[in-house]
Amino acid sequence: MRRGWLVAVAMLAPAALRSQDSTRPAPVGVRVGITYTPGTRPSVAVLPVATASLDSVRAILLRDLDYSDRFEVLLPPPTVAMQGGAPNYPGLTALGTDLAVAVVGAGGPGGDVDVQLHDVRAGSVRNHLSLQLPAGGEALRAAVHRVADEVVRWATGTPGVAATAILFVSDGRLWRVDPDGAGLANVPAAGRPTLSPAWSPDGRTVAYTAFVPGGRPLVLQDLASGSREVVPGTEYGVNITPEFSPDGRRLAYAHGDENGTDVYLYDVARHCCVTRLTVGRYYDNLSPTWSPDGQRLAFVSSRPGSPQLYVMSADGSGQEALARFDYGATGQSNGPEWSPDGQAIAFHREVGGVPQVFVLDLATRAVRQITGEGRNEDPTWAPDGRHLAFASTRGGVRQLWIVDLETGRMRPLAATGGARLPAWSPRRTFLTEAR
To answer: Within this chain, do residues 31 and 48 fall inside the same structural domain, yes or no?
Structure first.
């Protein structure tokens, strides 16, 4: 889901790219529109493990549950948490614990374990999952992430997002990282620089712009095999900001040439057939983002003179301005992405000449500012619809940050400096629950 900075046909010239990486001071007096009220989340204790070989599993679970932002995570002393090898319900209750997570097993990574969610107040096991852990490395991390997401689902009804990944661009190369900041890895791509990464709905394919000799084509790449396909008609001109439709059968993107920049659709399912959706003779249209039902597309258009958010039907009809805007306190709007529940669109908009992240409520058309420190751009939604990742200079160097819209908590990802254009993946396949 790639994102959108508006460009003219010389749009992706090196000077234009460099301008995206400049750092300017944040405006003074910006009021951020999120607050955090302590004490509103259930408390969960991650219980001590019986063997040292399970320490790494417990550590990953602990971090994933913390980063889900659904709980107050507790680490009770072993003498209080356990009694006779079982959870000490009275002791945990005295500490104000609502839930407890236990990893039971002696085999460690590569062995069999049982992950249990205890209802401390009721004094019983609410749910559990039995599985054989991989021996170690990324396979172990991925398995524990999936387990953590199941624990979140048991407790809240909605899975977590630990078992996802974020694509981003740094130093012209494509990278992926887990939401906890671990698992950083380069994704070999067709050219360099690589721009505008986007995930397919099944998480198996990524689309991106590749700078190759003679062109800026859009490439569809299978992440497992590395096989690649060039979108027909993108061998020439500038091609950016691709995004897959929710069913994965179509790809919306922006194509620019001497006649301007417009939004097009490619039929991925049939490997053919390109349809033009917008016709901008004196302005540019780009950065399409699909509604979850696949019926509409939001996009950026410079038709009012400054890039702003617009919306249209998936066939190109009914184009209209989407968000209220002005040319005083706020300026250009870019990088839209529709939320997973279809109720909001995240984007970045200039405030005093500095980009900040906003969320537009589609029912009320109210716009809420999320960031105010540093330059903050290109928000991308987590599958849970409550977390956003974005590129920010708030820490002194451009890197990825994650914000929880429910609590207002912000945290950096331990990714490479210069990170930009993030795209959050769909959820991976979950483990089958054992009851």
So the answer is: no
**Dihedral (C-alpha) 371, 376, 378, 384: value to the nearest 10 degrees?**
-40
Sequence-ordered list of residues with C-beta below 8 angstroms from that of 288, at least 6 positions apart, any chain: 241, 243, 252, 253, 254, 263, 277, 297, 298, 299
DSSP secondary structure letter of residue 216: B
Contact 319, 299 (CB under 8 A): no
pLDDT of residue 310 exceeding 90: yes
Q: Model-level pTM greater than 0.90?
A: no
Give the domain extent around 371. Answer: 14-35+161-424
> Does pLDDT of 47 surpass 60?
yes
Rg (CA), the chain: 23
Listed residue (222, 252, 257) closest to 238, CA to CA:
257
User: Roughly what angle, to the nearest 10 degrees, separates helices 55-67 and 137-156?
Assistant: 50
Both structure tokens of 354: 């500095």
Return the structure tokens found at 7.
């460009």
N- to C-terminal Cα separation, the chain = 37
Nearest-angstrom CA–CA distance, 381 and 399 = 17
My answer on whether 221 and 146 are in the same domain is no
Are 81 and 227 members of one domain? no
Instruction: Tell which of 156, 187, 212 closes a domain.
Output: 156
Q: What is the pLDDT of residues 319-331, one digit of tens each?
A: 999 987 665 556 7
Within this chain, do residues 52 and 99 fall inside the same structural domain, yes or no? yes
For the chain, percent of residues with pLDDT exceeding 70: 87
- Residues 198 and 329 occupy one common structural domain: yes
pLDDT at site 38: 46
State the average pLDDT over residues 51-60: 89
317 shares its domain with 364: yes
Q: Which phi-psi region, left, alpha or beta, contains residue 3 (left: φ > 0; alpha: ψ -120 to 50)? A: beta
Domain count, the chain: 2
User: What is the CA angle 42-121-91, rounded to 5?
Assistant: 95
Q: Show the tokens assigned to 170.
A: 């740094």
Same domain (yes/no): 25, 51: no
403 vs 20, higher pLDDT: 403
Q: What is the DSSP letter of 192?
A: S
The answer to whether residue 8 scores a pLDDT higher than 70 is: no
